[in-house]
């Protein structure tokens, strides 16, 4: 018997809908604010692992382990993302380290919670591995979400929620846990704050080479995945994900967020904040526009649009973009009296630095030694002096504490007295030690346990790279060309205050308080935020004395 066309169409629609399973929640459970530190206020049971139930109380669960064995690897660009910049600034992380958190009973009310200590909860949402129109698989994955719920709601207002999205790509939510706490307190505990590990990272189906073991500390490349390890690693991961690489695209991650918001927060006013790569994810979420989302905020924008390569954010033009900022930084040096006094005859510090690079490299070309003591000191680890300086300057530029040391290094390398050569030798040893110790922070717990190289590579080279790939000469031309917003009055940064005001004012831009912009702390090259002893083994960044050694 043949079905009527209308019935057949309906049947096909039912099949299509059934192919995408509904979102499921496994429940909200008490958890700590920090994923990287033990909760000292709740030690649990002496045997370190237990499950306790009671007939007259809700089930309480707590599990602890002596050590986490999961290994991962380093992400080459993550340290230069805004999430690493915030970590270097330290304010949010230190706040998280100072704050201890109590594990409340499952779904325990805020009124019963310990006064003054935010109560965090964690959950897993089961979502389709493949959304309709993205890829094809009946599998599901679990997405990890963390929140701190509002204790009260302002009179006459609807409940609100703020999502804080991490950068990367490939970074988990651990880097923004301190920011979650900062925003929660800045919003007077009247707004729930959420974050999640976007799929492929952390506790959300993290992409890792479990069988191939690439990226493990015991692998040939250690925690970094070597080129010769990639083929086996890719085969391993493709097996794990049904060969559906599109399942771990930016679009899939944005659909996760939309699905979770629609499931959990459809009756609240929701605001979404993203930083660095997180802004790219926010822009993708805009396309799906969950009805409850009332506003989007992007910080350190990675734009998904642009009519030219120079205007579009891609990782293939990363060096070009950093070079633009580096040139502006060096121009700012000459515009300040203190910094200008170190280079009195220089009119363009960028040109001066490039000439210095050439001079230093020429002094050690083909293994030469003895013509320039500073070039010898900087090349002691086998790298060109210019490479040591370029890569280090690129790292320092991203740190509001370390960037003022850049002119001091340039000054010493140019003047090059015997004392300068000694200081730069000490400096080069520190750079070499950092690289041997893992470079780019890959020995940090958050990278070893939660970040994913392979998700980084998957997204960067499929969605955030020029097509066709620029030739090597083009990339080398811009490679390392030259290498937050604290307040004068202290306290929360201006960015935090503006974001909090945006949420409090329900996203009405004309009502947002931006007065903190008038109190921004200017950059001063004479500040003593850098430890000269740590950098040069001297008492001063620019000068040496007999007492230094």
TrEMBL record:
Keyword Zinc: no
One Pfam short name: Abhydrolase_1
Any GO MF annotation of the entry: hydrolase activity
Keywords: Hydrolase, Signal
Signal sequence extent: 1-19
Coiled coil region boundaries: none
Bias (Basic residues) ranges: 98-107
Residue segments, region Disordered: 37-69, 90-115
Ranges of residues in domain AB hydrolase-1: 164-311
UniProt keyword annotation of Nucleus present: no
Record family assignment: Belongs to the peptidase S33 family.
Cited PANTHER family: 2-SUCCINYL-6-HYDROXY-2,4-CYCLOHEXADIENE-1-CARBOXYLATE SYNTHASE, AB HYDROLASE-1 DOMAIN-CONTAINING PROTEIN
Protein's name according to its UniProt entry: AB hydrolase-1 domain-containing protein
Organism: Phytophthora aleatoria
Upper classification of the organism: Eukaryota, Sar, Stramenopiles, Oomycota, Peronosporomycetes
